[in-house]
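Subject: complex prediction, re-run

Hi both,

The earlier run crashed halfway through, so I resubmitted it with identical inputs.
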Amino acid sequence: MALKFLVVDDSVTMRRIVANSLKSIGYDNFVEAADGKEALSKLNSDDSINFVITDWNMPEVSGLELVKAIRSNEKTQSLPILMVTTRGLKEDILEALQAKVNNYIVKPFTPQTLREKIEQILASS
Amino acid sequence: MENQLSMEQVFQKLGDLKQFFIFGQKIVPLFKKIIDFMTDIVPLLENVNNSIQDTTSKMPKAAHQINSVTNATEIATSEILDIVDSMSMDMTKIKNELEDMKNGFLNQRVALDKLINEYPSLNGRLEELKSALVIDELESKVVGLENVIQKIENDITNITISLQVQDITAQQLASVNHLIDSVQKRLSSLLFDFNKQDGLQIPHFEEIHEHKKPFNPNAKYDRNHDMQKVADELINGNNKTSQEEIDKLFGK
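This time it finished cleanly. Structure:
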């Protein structure tokens, strides 16, 4: 199955870096959203999105709220979600896991780490 | 007898009076010092008040400048990423060209070997030609160039990793802006109370209207990836987090 990523981050820089990293590891099918609200709208309108990579601290709807919204929607509840954030405290990571993210990356990350986490998620799903 | 008692009382009162004067002699310099201190401190307090007013009025500008820094670094980072993208595309082109050259060398070698086999009489001349073409030497140069390109690609990856610092510093600056906002509100409130009590004109300060970017106050640029190790341990279940700790965290 071809992967189509939804890259969610309010930072233009980070969206580009995640997108470039995806391209460098062989994934070039992705769409972008600047916050959780836009992400939910894209998920609602584009059924081909099958992988979400999201930041945490964002305006409107935060990454954590986005994860909870995805998990509470029957249509999207099984989507793989990878959180990529600056939040690296133990309690943050536990909170994200409690919200049912599939994996977690703390910025700054390498394309290699991104590849490992995507592969881990795909292998376990 | 009665007169003697009255005199004793008078002397006792005089003694008390004497003690009072002795105490007065001691306390008067202290009062003088307090008055001198008050004389000195009032202009100082006026200065502090003016200084706080001045600082408070400058805070919106400071917050604005911090946001300008964030915007400028975001634009600069975007420009660097444009260059990095362009370099990556050029590297891909060069890699493809080098691959074509390697295939060309292989084809030349195969063609020459085939000719050598087909025309043994020309063997010596063909070997000379093969040697003159310096295929092996050119091929090793191509491999050398491929190694250089690999190094450049690794450098490009490292630049991309380093550019993530922009997002991290943007969050740190947003955190500073939040602090400035809080301090301004507190100082404005203090000045309001101070001036109101003294019947002075209540200063009006420009509010900080900068875009409030959500931020992580603990954001830091950690290239040792220590926090990633903690995340991996928690996800892989190797970290000893007790259920009690989790329940406490989520308020169960």
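The CA atoms of residues 244 and 252 of chain B lie 9 Å apart.

- K.
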